[in-house]
Amino acid sequence: MKTKARPEPKTKHDYAAQAEIIKAMAHPTRLLILNSLKKKEVCVCELRDLVGDDISTVSKHLSILKNAGLVAARREGNWLHYRLICPCVLDFTGCIAGIKR
Amino acid sequence: MKTKARPEPKTKHDYAAQAEIIKAMAHPTRLLILNSLKKKEVCVCELRDLVGDDISTVSKHLSILKNAGLVAARREGNWLHYRLICPCVLDFTGCIAGIKR
DNA sequence: TTGCTATTTTGCCAAATTGCCAAATAGATG
DNA sequence: CATCTATTTGGCAATTTGGCAAAATAGCAA
Q1: CA A15, CA A24: separation in Å to the nearest integer?
Q2: Could you tell me the domains of chain B?
Q3: DSSP track, A29-49
Q4: Which residue of A has its CA nearest to B12?
Q5: How does pLDDT run across B69-89, given as a tens digit for each residue?
């Protein structure tokens, strides 16, 4: 039987890596995109309609999410379908919802 | 018996509010502070030593966390002790740790 | 009151972020 | 090849953020 794992203390580097991912989520449009991908993959053009910004703006948000490792794309003909890689990032919402200022 | 609650669709305003809180967490120093408060409240001067930045910088990070509703302060003489209001925000870390780029 | 300590606020500046438009790219199709 | 569609990239201005230092504030004690 294993002894209970004791986590190493986190370094500044660890926190920087975490912050990169959290920063990618820290934008209203990107939260909307992530939530839109909760149940199914969605095409960029659909996301543009949902978001309502210029397509180039939406694309930039997607590349930020992609670089953070939060979403991935699959090409199908001319369309790119984005999907959520780690749906658990949306569980966060439940905790956040309980915070009142 | 109640029927299962069906969440309302989130508005841009909802996402903006969520983003505010997440943005407050999206900085290495602020993640370090939040984790330092995981088990017990901590004085500002201790946090300054942990973080290593100028005291005014630490104070600014604390005010960002406070405005986001993530921490609160309790005065004891000259010292201010900060504590984590919603420890659940640290559960997030588990999901984040699974993300690889 | 004065002085002392802990903390916050203000001012400043460099760096990063945001969003739009235009241009470039990738893939499909003729 | 040319052309069309979907998407990304580059450039730019406006705004926001981060960190230090100086000044201001809050509470305690003499």
Answers
A1: 14
A2: 14-97 (1.10.10.10)
A3: HHHHHHHHTSSS-EEHHHHHH
A4: A28
A5: 999 999 999 999 999 999 999
Which residues of chain B have a Cβ shorter than 8 Å from any chain A Cβ?
A: 10, 12, 15-16, 18-19, 21-23, 25-32, 35, 67-70, 85-86, 88-89, 91-96, 98-101
- Tokens 């993640």 belong to residue: B31
Residue A90 φ/ψ, nearest 5 degrees: -85, -15
Q: Using CA coordinates, name the residue in chain B closest to A52.
A: B12
Q: How far apart are CA B62 and CA B58, in angstroms?
A: 6
- In sequence order, what E strands does B2-62 have? 42-43
Taking residues A17-24, report their average pLDDT: 97
Strand ranges, E, within chain A: 42-43, 71-76, 79-84
